[in-house]
């Protein structure tokens, strides 16, 4: 039996401080390569819709990104797929179309097998070293065990 | 006469970094200001870095056309190094850039432009309004979903050519980093053939060959009447809807065009071009084309929030030093004002059609001048001019796989270089100077800097500022007409912060840690 595919995809823009949380976690996880349990690590950057090919291979996908307005600055938040899509407040496509848009359109355009579970580790506010460390650790746990395994 | 001043048009999806302000008199736009609200500063960021760093940093300027910036960056380095990539590298670079351009064109046309045809309040009385809903409604319109799916499939070619996805960096001075396996090239051919089939069936409603026979406005009318498949295709529907909405009367602009030319041809290839490139460079007044002279490019800072110099400067002499005060309120944008020989110019697919002497577009421009319909039409049919050369290059790669894909470039010497290409949105240039092995100067002029520029020292408005003049606005709360004008230029003011934000309304509970 094939092992379940597990991915961590860190998104954001490392050149814009307010959006650099994902790449910062990517760099931290990169220091830990190879990751346990065969977890694959990708820097999703600003790819937006172009991340869709990474979401056609089943398994579990953990996104890591900056968030705004979900919790207190300096905290982490975990959202499931339904909650991420629910955050989409503009259904129009734009150059800034982010994760919520990608996941909203995924069922309509997926050519392969959509992930069984998608979660987001969101970093709120300025990213301190300890917050990045916590986000990296949490994303590894979520990728390995999923939300059920962490609750 | 009722005059409303300084109205901020809500460009809710024209990239958070763009604002359009207009004055409206008796329901007609009488003046306009294009405001870039974000300082990019990539140029300053490059100073002192290693000579090759532009290959990694500048693609991060834009998530939509990152590969395009990679192409301009590597062309600039090739220029400094005096390197000449082998034919196979040319084929692979051109193929990747064409893929990115095609996906951008179709996503822009359907998801960002024609989606406004589904604006119920604006078009509830339009005879094709209901059909537009079915085709273009966000996240559910048939065409909207198809375009996302098919452009995603086409982009697999870039993943194959680049060997990495996303953020491929396969272009290097002297060529490319690797040659795809034969099986992967065969896969590229299949992807391309499949995409072509969909483009012909859904977008054109006819074969590429039949579309390219349309060479005049009369031909276009004949094509529309010839077959229900033509009328019902996205192209046919676009033309019919746009004509009835009067989009051929909006958005004239400066009637000056600029293209840097694009796609350097391999030395041995079956693809025909002009002067060693598939697309010729040029400057045009109306459809009168003259030769392109790179030294005529300058950047005017008089209305931009930058430290002022001694007047407009060539990109090799210009600087990007933010200075947002002390100019008496004259400055209003973070975009500079590029000019060609002091002239305001439009760039993009329509400019490319003009430089190519395309008879259909020459005729359309002769009859009605530049307008929203003809500008967007050029974007929608541009892929028809790419798909055949792409098929030829894939085939040539298969037959010449054993030939070089890289000519060794051991180091980047001190000197100057420029990479000038056509991005999806128009003329893109990277100007680079290497000093003591490091980047001493880097200037970038993007297509949107040309099209969305503010006024210059002579008081000339930028292209879409000018195009907005005379635009009727029926409903100031739903200014779809102004949106059509600006979006016909395909604005892109840099992907900035786009993190997930909590929507308005009741709290959305996550699992706080």
Describe what you observe in this structure.
The complex is a heterodimer of chains A (151) and B (513). Helix content of chain A is 32%, strand content 23%. Chain A contains four helices and five strands, in the order E-H-E-E-E-H-H-E-H. Chain A has a single domain (6-150), classed as HybD-like (Rossmann fold, 3-Layer(aba) Sandwich), CATH 3.40.50.1450. A five-stranded mixed beta sheet of chain A has the order 2-1-3-5-4. The relative contact order of chain A is 0.24. In chain A, helix 1 (21-30) links the parallel strand 1 and strand 2 (40-45). The two termini of chain A are 26 Å apart. In chain B, the strands form six sheets. In chain B, strands 10-9-6-13 form a four-stranded mixed beta sheet. A three-stranded antiparallel beta sheet of chain B has the order 1-2-3. Chain B has a three-stranded antiparallel beta sheet with strand order 14-15-16. Chain B has 513 residues and is of the alpha+beta class. In chain B, strand 9 (282-285) and strand 10 form a beta hairpin. Chain B has a single domain (3-487), classed as Cytochrome-c3 Hydrogenase, chain B, CATH 1.10.645. The chains are: A alpha/beta (151), B alpha+beta (513). The interface between A and B is large, with 62 and 50 residues. Strand 3 of chain A pairs parallel with strand 17 of chain B.
What is the structure about, briefly put?
The complex is a heterodimer of chains A (151) and B (513). Chain A is built from four helices and five strands.
What features would you highlight for this structure?
heterodimer; A: 151 residues; Rossmann fold; five-stranded mixed beta sheet; 32% helix; B: 513 residues; three-stranded antiparallel beta sheet; 18 strands; 17% strand; globular
